[in-house]
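Final report, closing paragraph on structural work. Over the funding period we assembled a curated collection of sequence-structure pairs, and we close with a single example.
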Amino acid sequence: VPNPSARNLKITDSNTIAVVIKGITNPFFYPIIGEFQRLLQKEGYNFLLSSVNEHDNEYTSARLLAIEKNLSGLIFMGGHLAASVHELDNIRCPYVMCTVDLSHNDRVQTLNYVSVDDVAESARMTRYLLELGHRRLVFLTTPDGKHSVSNLREQGFRQALESFPAQVQAEVIRVAESNYYYSYGSGYEAMRKLLEERRDFTAVYAISDTLAIGALKALHEAGLRVPEDCSLAGFDGIDLCLYSNPTLTSLAQPAEAMAAYTVELLCNLLKGKVKHGHKVFAGELIPRDSTRSIL
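Its predicted structure, as stored:
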C-alpha cells in the first residue's frame, strides 16, 4: 500500500528549476538554455523547460507550473513581458528574469533580472550607422509592447536620432502579428513588403539577428547588394552572423556570462543570501561585412 506521507514528501522535494521561455524559436536563446541546464544540474537541480506563445501571459503559465510541479525556482526568458511586475510578486518561488531588461522600471531595486541595457546598446548601434554616413534608415522591429525588448530598443534608436546633429530620415517597420515575432520569416516578409513600396533607404537596423537575416534574403531577391546598395545590422550576436553572406554586423549580447550570472543569482535567492539582485552586462558592437561607410 502506498504511503501517502512518503508520496507527499517526494512531491515537496521536487528540487526543480523551470525555465519559462517566450520565443523559443529564436536561436539566440539556444546557448543560454544549454548553459542553464548544465549549470543547474551541476548545482543539483532538476531542469524543466516550458515554452510560452508570444501573446500569452508568462505569469499565468509560471504560476500554474509552480503549483503543479512544486518548483523550487523560476527563470523567465523572452523579448516581451506580458505580465506586470506586480503580478510577479505573487509567484510562490524565487525567480530571475534573463534577457528581459528591467533597468528602466520604477521598481528596479526590487526586481531580479539579468540583461544588457537595451536602450543604450540600441542607441550605440544606431550611432554607428549614422557615423558611417547613413541618413535614411529603416528600423525593423516587432509589434509594440510596453515592457518589450522591441520598445526599449526603439527608444534607443530614437534617442540616437534625436541627439544626432544632422537631419535624418527614419522609418519604423513592424513585422506582422504572429506567434513567432523573431523568426527569419517575419524579417523576410516585412522587408519584402517594404521593397514592394519602393522606399528609399541606405541602411536597415533590425532588433534581432533573425529579423536581419530574413531581411537579407529579401534584399538579395530584389537584386540589392549588401552592403553596396544597403547596409544591414542586427542585434544579439548569434552564430549565424558569421555564416550569412555577407557576414552580419551585430550588437552581441554575452549569452554565456548572462546565463552563468542568472543561475548564480537564483541559487543565492534560494539559499537566502540575497533578497533581490540584478546585473546589466555590456554588449559588444561587432562590425562585419554587411555594413559600410558611405561618406
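The CA atoms of residues 125 and 201 lie 17 Å apart. Residues 1-12 have pLDDT under 50 and may be disordered. We thank the funder for supporting this effort.
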